[in-house]
Amino acid sequence: MPTWGVHTTAIHAGEEEGVADVAPPIHVSSSFRFSSAEEAAQAFEVEDRYIYTRWNNPTINQLEAKVAALEGGEAALAAASGMAAVSTAVLTAVQAGDHVVASTGLYGGTLHFLRETLPRYGVAVSFATATDVSAFESALRPDTRLIYLESPNNPALELNDIAAITALARERGILTMIDNTFATPINQKPLALGVDVVVHSATKYFCGHGDALGGVIVGARDFIERARKETLRHFGGNISPFNAWLIARGMQTLPLRVARHNENALRLAEWLAEDPRVAWVRYPWHPSHPQHDLARRQMPGGGGGVVVFEVKGGLQAGMHLLDRVRLCTQAASLGDTHTLISHPASTMLAHVPPEVRRAGGVSDGLIRLAVGLEDVEDIIADLDQALGKTP
Ligand code: PLP
Prior knowledge:
The chain has helices at residues 6-12, 37-43, 58-71, 82-93, 108-120, 133-139, 162-171, 184-187, 221-235, 241-251, 254-274, 292-298, 314-324, 354-359, 376-387, and strands at residues 75-79, 99-103, 124-128, 144-150, 175-179, 197-201, 215-219, 278-282, 306-311, 329-330, 340-342, 367-370. It is of the alpha/beta class. It folds into two domains: 6-251, Type I PLP-dependent aspartate aminotransferase-like (Major domain) (Aspartate Aminotransferase, domain 2); 254-388, Aspartate Aminotransferase, domain 1 (Alpha-Beta Complex), CATH 3.90.1150. Helix 8 links the parallel strand 5 and strand 6 (197-201). Pyridoxal-5'-phosphate binds next to helix 4 and helix 5. Residues 81-83, 86, 107, 109-110, 150, 154, 179, 181-182, 201, 203, 213, 215 line the site of pyridoxal-5'-phosphate (PLP). It comes from Ardenticatena maritima.
């Protein structure tokens, strides 16, 4: 493939050869025809022959090629959801008897998988404070096989120092994995910072329109092939061709959309930071973020589309705000055209013990604003009216 710019890559990477359609066709078939018994027998020997959609599918392969090109990875594997990608990637990397060091402040589903599920299968997991490189070093053990990161994390927007942590891991031959959902490859390129494997909830910015679940794993070809053949093929968490098509379609405008998410979110962070009704605001590219210098270095493309803040008056005032918004929509996702607003402590993280939530930087009153693509002045006007007379 030629060396293309990011917009050209987002539009053209993964295009199927020999197809006349400009818009890619959707291959919905669950299996692929053989013309003879001999061809069928041979197909099972050949790596890239289409046989059965749980193994390989041309529409799904297009999404994979697009994500690999944008992340700068050798290969990618799509899965049914972000959680299917996370669990497939982790289960490819570890086995019973291994130890994992994970960052604090992870997305609730990942946190549950690492804290509750993995130990039941004989994998030990320790947590290191997201923002403290030395905590990762102290948590390492002779049997540590994987360091798991998420930066910025959901929802606290704390950052892992990716280059410093991967350097620690490399010296010791430990695999590193990061969830790059919040930043996207437009803002942050973890593989170039030394990470081995990147995972995504493609449900979010990749899809971009809130109408398909998906996940993707990116990394070295041998890891991706093991994930495909040893894990996903047998656990069966495959994406449907239609969802892969929707997500690949959305990805053609990823760089355009992420630039606008970045712009709108930074403007909102600035507006919230100045508002006397707001107690505090956190956004990676806002100077008030405790890791602002790291954010500018590690996320050169922009601070992302999520802003978190707390209203003066705490939890009750925050709930009041949620009940009064009109343009912003109360919903659990992010990365959509629509601005979505949520209260993580009472929703996505309600099942997580409060001390674990707080260790992950999530105060009880924290509001997550997943800034959409609307006119930013309209989002500001909505929040302004919803904040009302809050002290
Ligand atoms: N990773 C992050 C950072 C997320 O925010 C989410 C979902 O919100 C996931 C993973 C899981 O993705 P999915 O809902 O597509 O399974």
